[in-house]
Design brief:
Layout (H helix, E strand, L loop, with lengths): L2 H37 L3 H25 L6 H35 L4 H34 L4 H52 L3 H20 L10 E2 L4 E6 L1 H4 L3 E6 L2 E7 L9 H14 L3 E7 L5 H9 L2 E7 L3 H10 L9 E4 L3 H6 L7 E6 L14 H9 L1 E14 L4 H10 L5 E7 L8 E9 L7 E3 L7 E4 L2 H11 L11 H4 L1 H5 L1 H4 L2
Parallel strand pairs: 5-6, 5-8, 6-7, 8-9
Antiparallel strand pairs: 1-2, 2-3, 3-4, 9-11, 10-11, 10-13, 12-13
């Protein structure tokens, strides 16, 4: 007669462990999206988040083991696990207002970027992970006590359920919840799940059950009184970015807007005049294309769409444009059409919602483009597979004679190691590799936008001057000096096998005077 209660108790403990482990990993995945609008997404962000969550779980497991020691009455053990889950729910919800109210002041202090990332990660996500970690040892002890004749089997089952829950949480967080209900909704769902599990464990313990319900009412009332604490900075949360569009009219004096991906502006569009370029590197690419090919026909491939500023402009300014845009995120295209004045039927624009490398390789390997334009770099977030020699060979094979590959690289004024590695790698497949800079930017700060041009022939001028709208000029750095600097830097070639982009770009993030936005 005792087997039936033992079975149902074991089922309860296993289910709670499985679901709480899933919730902890969902929160780990959503942590990256929550931090992205403030510190961006990089290797440093994910390293901090994963380390903090693992640290919290580790401490929690140790505390939970201490709480599960001895001949503990089952009701007491369930109450302790239920309280831990309730605290996990509370601390998960608290991360939202803490982030909204605390991130900006912390970053404004000017502390080291990595310190800021680790501080935010620890301050927001250590406690939820710690409280979730407490639950596992207690539930495992309860499961063993409920079925003492199969101790080893029970321990193995509980470990397996915890691991399986973690797998489910990782998949659900990354593939379902964030794009379906957003980061705020995901955090609230995690908190709701923790709360439901806590109530399940506290069933039959009237005082603890009522106390938890009272805490829920107080928490909900506090959140309702501060609605901005739950407001998301994202207009749209896609599988790739936190997207929003901000008005730029105050800075431009015209009806214009800027697309922000995570924490950085990624293109400024003018409503009435698509060919007005606020970004110098786009203006340079437009002037260079017109100089080499005129304004009649242009065949171009875009590695990334961004705000679609250049495709939108070239659709209007060239008589026969063929503009193939490989933009991996459909939401970027949608927001450009809805809020950045990209016409869905823009002349000559073909949108390909795939990774740019896959999209390019799906096309015939023969000369077909005048320009390949790289706009997938996201500050220091550079996709390694888009800067390798193998990818450059694919680009070179599809450029017409005289065509060029243009890439903008945000780097340090002194010792730009990633830039040097990129130039060295490009030189294997392109006869002419040039570095251009905006003449006005040469004397400003430690952070420069370098304009890299790779082609089968050199440009016919060392200075390019704009012909319309903003008065700008760009200078080509001397090739012999650039080659000497590259040789001195002793940087590696970037290949599919070895493309250490994050290490080569580390100085941009680690030096505040370079990395400040």
């Amino acid at each position: 007669m005792q087997a039936k209660p033992s079975f149902f108790l074991s089922l309860l403990y296993g289910a709670v462990l499985f679901l709480s482990s899933a919730a902890a990993l969902v929160l780990e995945i959503v942590a990256g999206r929550l931090l992205a609008p403030y510190v961006g997404m990089s290797l440093y962000t994910w390293t901090a988040i994963i380390s903090v969550v693992l640290a919290g779980l580790t401490i929690g497991h140790w505390i939970g083991g201490r709480l599960a020691e001895g001949a503990l009455p089952p009701a007491t053990a369930r109450r302790r696990a239920g309280i831990a889950l309730a605290l996990a729910a509370l601390s998960s919800v608290a991360a939202l207002p803490l982030l909204r109210l605390g991130a900006a002041p912390l970053l404004a202090v000017g502390i080291h970027p990595v310190t800021a990332i680790v501080t935010l990660s620890a301050g927001l996500f250590l406690l939820p992970s710690l409280f979730a970690g407490i639950v596992s040892p207690i539930l495992t002890k309860l499961a063993v006590d409920a079925d003492p004749t199969h101790t080893g089997r029970t321990i193995g089952r509980m470990y397996a359920l915890g691991a399986a829950g973690s797998i489910l949480g990782t998949l659900a967080g990354g593939y379902v919840f964030i794009s379906l209900i957003g980061s705020v909704g995901t955090v609230l769902s995690v908190a709701g799940l923790y709360t439901a599990l806590a109530l399940a464990l506290l069933a039959g313990q009237r005082r603890a059950f009522v106390a938890l319900l009272g805490g829920l009412v107080v928490t909900a009332t506090a959140l309702a009184a501060i609605p901005q604490a739950l407001a998301s900075p994202c207009a749209v949360e896609s599988d790739y970015y936190c997207l929003r569009v901000e008005d730029f009219s105050g800075q431009s004096g015209r009806d214009s807007a800027v697309l922000v991906l995570d924490h950085l502006g990624h293109g400024i569009n003018d409503r009435a005049q698509p060919t007005l370029f606020h970004s110098s590197y786009l203006h340079f690419s437009d002037e260079m294309a017109a100089r080499r090919f005129g304004r009649d026909r242009l065949d171009a491939f875009f590695i990334g769409g961004g705000a679609y500023t250049l495709p939108r402009a070239w659709s209007q300014s060239f008589r026969q444009p063929h503009l193939h845009v490989a933009e991996i995120d459909p939401q970027v295209t949608r927001i450009a059409q809805d809020r950045l004045w990209l016409a869905p039927d823009a002349k000559g624009v073909i949108v390909d919602h795939h990774d740019a490398r896959l999209a390019l390789q799906s096309l015939p390997r023969l000369p077909q483009f005048d320009v390949v334009f790289g706009d997938a770099f996201h500050d220091i977030g550079i996709p390694p597979h888009l800067v390798t020699r193998e990818f450059h060979a694919e680009i070179a094979a599809r450029l017409k004679p005289g065509g060029f590959y243009a890439i903008n690289v945000i780097e340090a004024r002194h010792e730009p190691r990633f830039l040097f590695a990129l130039l060295q790698t490009l030189a294997h497949d392109f006869a002419a590799v040039e570095v251009w800079v905006d003449g006005d930017e040469m004397a400003q700060g430690e952070r420069i936008t370098y304009l890299v041009l790779a082609s089968d022939r050199a440009s016919d001028t060392p200075v390019l001057r704009s012909n319309r709208f903003f008065s700008r000029h760009w200078l080509r750095l001397r090739n012999d000096q650039v080659r000497a600097k590259v040789q001195e830097a002793r940087v590696p070639d970037l290949t599919d096998d070895f493309s250490p982009v994050d290490r080569l770009m580390a100085h941009v993030l680690l030096a505040p005077e370079i990395g400040e936005k």
